[in-house]
Specification:
This protein is mainly α. Among the domains are: 48 residues, no CATH class; 80 residues, no CATH class. The longest helix is centred in the middle third of the chain and has 28 residues. It starts with 7 loop residues before the first helix and ends with a helix. Bound molecules: zinc ion.
Length: 213
């Protein structure tokens, strides 16, 4: 006799068992399964579909009714996008102009202040505080910030503090360095952004190893 999920006998004998497994064993830890996969990927904080859903709700609010014609709806969408554009622009300006007191005169932050977004700096402060507790121990760190945000994690920050060096600009993902819209990018700044120093450092390490052999 074959016991398949569709059979009556299966339903009678195993459904309560499956129900038990689902509710008592899997449900209490289901978030840990999701967390396990989420923590292994670069997501920049987007771990749910909330952002898309809230944008959808915002658009519906702007359209106000389903009776509008193309011209009215076009105008509503245009106004909504303009408001969002202004808000993003303001956040860029805040990151470029406003310097928080806690970062002033500190070697650790010297390459990053006013060059990366405030949100990234706030993520890094969390890692900084964690680094004071765990030090350079990689196993205690877990390096989630590096994996999921491409920002230096607590053990990396601890190493910088230990050596008295600064967090480097090239250790930050481009996502956090974008503080201008395309049409505003100064070509000189854009060129300055391109650096061969990390590659040069790697070459120099190889060179020194070869010389010492
Ligand atoms: Zn780490």
């Amino acid at each position: 006799m074959i016991l398949g999920p569709g059979s009556k006998l299966y339903a009678q004998n195993f459904l309560s068992f499956l129900d038990y497994v689902e509710k008592k064993i899997l449900d209490p830890v289901k978030e840990k399964f999701v967390r396990y996969w989420v923590d292994k990927n670069l997501h920049m904080g987007n771990t749910t579909t909330n952002r898309a859903e809230s944008e959808h709700a915002r658009l519906k609010m702007c359209l106000s009714s389903s009776m509008g014609d193309l011209s009215t709806n076009w105008k509503s969408v245009h106004n909504m996008l303009e408001l969002q554009h202004t808000a993003i622009h303001a956040s860029f300006k805040t990151s470029i102009i406003m310097l928080e007191h806690r970062f002033k005169g500190k070697v650790l932050w010297s390459n990053l202040i006013l060059n990366i977004s405030r949100e990234a700096l706030h993520h890094l402060v969390v890692e900084y505080n964690k680094s004071l507790e765990i030090g350079t121990d990689k196993s205690k760190c877990g390096c989630l910030s590096l994996i999921t945000y491409r920002l230096p994690c607590a053990c990396m920050v601890a190493l910088k503090i230990k050596n008295g060096t600064a967090l480097r600009f090239d250790e930050i993902h481009t996502h956090w360095k974008r503080l201008r819209f395309e049409y505003e990018v100064d070509p000189k700044l854009h060129k300055a952004d391109i650096s061969l120093l990390p590659e040069w450092d790697i070459l120099q390490v190889y060179f020194k190893k070869t010389v010492l052999l």
